[in-house]
Specification:
Number of strands: 0
Helix content: over 70%
Strand content: under 5%
Number of helices: 9
Mean pLDDT: 84
Largest sheet: none
Number of domains: 1
Radius of gyration: 21 Å
Distance between the termini: 47 Å
Shape: elongated
Order of helices and strands: HHHHHHHHH
Structural class: mainly alpha
Length: about 270
Amino acid sequence: MKIPIPRKKRNLSFSDAIYNFFVMITGLTIFSMEYFKNLFVPPYDISEIKKHMDELGVKTFPIVSVTGLVIGVVLALQSQPILVKFGAADFLPKMVALSVIRELGPVITALIFAGRVSSGIGAELGSMRVTEQIDAMEVSAINPFKYLVVTRITATTLILPILSTYVVFLAIFGGYFAIITTQGMNFAYYQQSVVSSVQFGDFIPGIGKTLIFGFIVGLVGCYKGYMAEGGTEGVGKASTTAVVLASLLILLVDTVLVKITLVLWPTV
C-alpha cells in the first residue's frame, strides 16, 4: 500500500497546502480501497470486532445518553414559543420527532462519536506506529492492516447506527419532558402525534447515513494513526487532526446526503 507523503515545512505556502489537501484525499481513498480489499478475505476476526464495538461504542453510551436527552429538551423549548406564536403548538411533537429522526439525532451523535473515537484510534495506532509495533507485526508475517484497521473500521460502522437509534428515542422522550413542563400535554396525545407523523421511511435516511458516518470516523482515525510519524508529537497531531477531519467530513457528506434523501424520501 503506497500512500503519498505530504510536504512538511515550518511555513507552508498556498501551493503546499493545496498539495497536502489532495495528498490527504488520495491517502483516504487508497486507505478505504485497501479496507474493502481486506474486508472479505479470511480469516475473519469476529472476536476482535466485538471487542472494539464494546470499547469504542458501548462505552460511549453515557455521553450520548445525556446528549440525546438534551437535544430533545432544547429543541422542544426553543421551538415551542415560535409555534405558539403562529398557532401551531399542536405540531410540536411532530416537529421534534421528525427533526430528531431525520437529521439532528444522527448528525450530533456522529459528531460526539467522532470526538471520542477518532482521537482514541488515532492516538492508539499512532503510538503503535512510532514505537515500531506495527513494523514488528509485519516482520512476524502478520497483516497489521487487517488486524488493526479493518476490525476498527468495521466496528465503528456497525455500532454508530445502534447509538443513533438509541439517541433518537431518548431525544423524543426529552422532547416530551420539555413539553409537559410548558404545555401540560398528556403522554397519550404526545405518543399519538409522534406515531402518526413518523413513517418507516423517515428512519431510512436518518439511521441509514450513520453507516457512512461510522465508516468515516473509523477510516479517518485509522488513517491518521497508521500513517503517524515523528514520535510523541506525531501521535498528538494524529489524534487532534483525526477529530477535526472526521467532523468536517461528516458535515460535508451530510450536506450531500440531505439533498439525496429529500429527493428519495420527501418529508411531505
